[in-house]
């Protein structure tokens, strides 16, 4: 025997809203950067990029799954780093003692023969913020090892107006998972 359940609406037991289902995706928000961007060449500090997403969890037991596709490049010989911050604060970074090392989610050294390439790096971070306030996840970028270099999004380092150079897009997605 086959059963079919058809409904127009689902509400929680009190009739006030959508049911909260543990393990289910409750909402999805996305930020997309459709323009090119370059970090400051006069600093080694991480700085905010325009790529960000804001989500407001329904429950303090929810988890937030951050995914993304970061298209980036840098100048020949440079090291570029990217990390996601929550409301401006670091999260889910290495807990090792770092001394002079950089903590980031993405690190890449740009060899001289790759200045015409755009690298793609995925993001996949599961945050447990214990909050029902708005959370903004922002991609930060930098070249912490040396001033004079730039981290670049959605473009190659050479950026000459030729058909073999491209502009791309980068995304960051926040999904609330019922906890």
3D structure, described in words:
- With 179 residues, the chain is mainly beta.
- It has one domain: Sandwich (Jelly Rolls), CATH 2.60.120.1340.
- It is 0% helix and 41% strand.
- The protein has no helices and 11 strands.
- The protein has strands spanning 25-33, 37-38, 47-55, 63-74, 79-86, 89-90, 106-109, 119-127, 135-142, 151-153, 170-177.
- The strands form 2 sheets. Strands 1, 2, 4, 8, 10 and 11 form a 6-stranded antiparallel β-sheet that branches.
- Strand 5 (79-86) and strand 6 form a beta hairpin.
- It starts with 24 loop residues before the first strand and ends with a strand.
Count of the separate structural domains: 1
Structure summary, number of beta strands: 11
- CATH fold-level label: Jelly Rolls
Report the biggest beta sheet as strand number plus sense, adding barrel if it closes.
6 strands, antiparallel
Question: Into which percent range does the helicity of residues fall?
Answer: under 10%
Assess the beta-strand content as a share of residues.
Answer: 35-45%
Global structural class:
mainly beta
Number of helices: 0
Mean pLDDT: 92
**What is the general shape?**
elongated
Distance between the termini: 33 Å
Q: What order do the SSEs take from the amino end to the carboxyl end, as H and E?
A: EEEEEEEEEEE
Radius of gyration: 20 Å
Uncertain spans: none
> So, CATH architecture?
Sandwich
- CATH hierarchy, class: Mainly Beta
